[in-house]
Amino acid sequence: MALSYPAGVTSARRLLSTLALLGGSAALDSGHAQDGFFRIGYSASAERQAPLRVTFQASAPAGYTVQWTFGDGAVASGPAADHIYYRPGTYRLQAALLDAQGRVVSRAEASLPVLSAGPERAALTVLQPTPGEVRLSAEGSVLYTPARPTLLLGGREVGTVANRLPNGIYAATVRAATSDGRTAEQRLNITVAPWTTSAPYDAEVLRLTNQARAQGWNCASQRPGGPALPPLKLDPTLTVAAQAQSAGMSLYSYFDHTSGFDGSTPLRRVQAAGLTPTTVAENIAAGQQTPAEVVQGWLKSPGHCRNIMGDFTLIGLSYVNRPGTTYTRYWTQVFARL
């Protein structure tokens, strides 16, 4: 039996805005202010959820200094500043331009809303990128505090480094302090068991995928002839996320973009592996015998085909073989654009 699950796409967009300081007044705009004297811009995730990292940048005349007041008690100075708003709320951002004598010559204020991501919780994301290897991450946690979560494997603190383990069952825990002093945690029992990969199979999936892009495969007419697309570059970090998905499906008996084991999504696995993309997509399949069969199946499916022919630059690949499981062979493609 061969299955090809509906394609999954997740965005992690960035929002760029401009704060223009015009004689002491402030205006928030989605375009570019043309003041020419003092311009302030910031970028943040489009979701604007806490904890929210915001990057501020200023364009000011030579010899002047920019001072930032972030509205949560923190301050900074300089033409650029990074700041994290840990708690939801509406913050009053202030920016001031000082001359060489330290006098304020222009000032502005603006409201910066930071939305809630929901109740605080600890989440465990498990990556098993090679047989016998386990990497833990707290990606997916919602914590309105700078305190770092603790990751435990078999009762031992391990951090996010790779751990080599013999076959068996291991208790994994993420534990974190919340902003109100409580302790949030999640526990999972991780299975370490044999499975195999195939570098030639992964290479052939990549070749066939890039062949379809070069041919300008038309997802509607099911034939080549459209605009040619540049080849996707194999990325080792995306491959870690792809391996985690194929291995996870074989080890924990699920077939879905959302892990039936730790609840992770394609984007969450990519972020746990160490990449922060603007867009992520994932194709999965199970039971197909060869690279040709699985790529043909994806190209014949509109959603999967759109991912293969999508506006991506990077790809991660994974073929996992685990005899005795529901489908034996599991396939994953993870696409991304930075």
TrEMBL record:
Q: Which residues belong to any copy of the PKD domain?
A: 57-106
Tell me the SUPFAM superfamilies matching this sequence.
PKD domain, PR-1-like
Checking Pfam families in the record gives:
CAP, PKD
Task: Extract the Gene3D superfamilies matched here.
Answer: CAP, Immunoglobulins
Question: PANTHER family recorded for this chain?
Answer: SCP DOMAIN-CONTAINING PROTEIN (PTHR31157)
| Protein name as annotated | PKD domain-containing protein
Q: What is the originating organism of this protein?
A: Deinococcus arboris
From the broadest rank down, the organism's phylogenetic lineage runs: Bacteria, Thermotogati, Deinococcota, Deinococci, Deinococcales
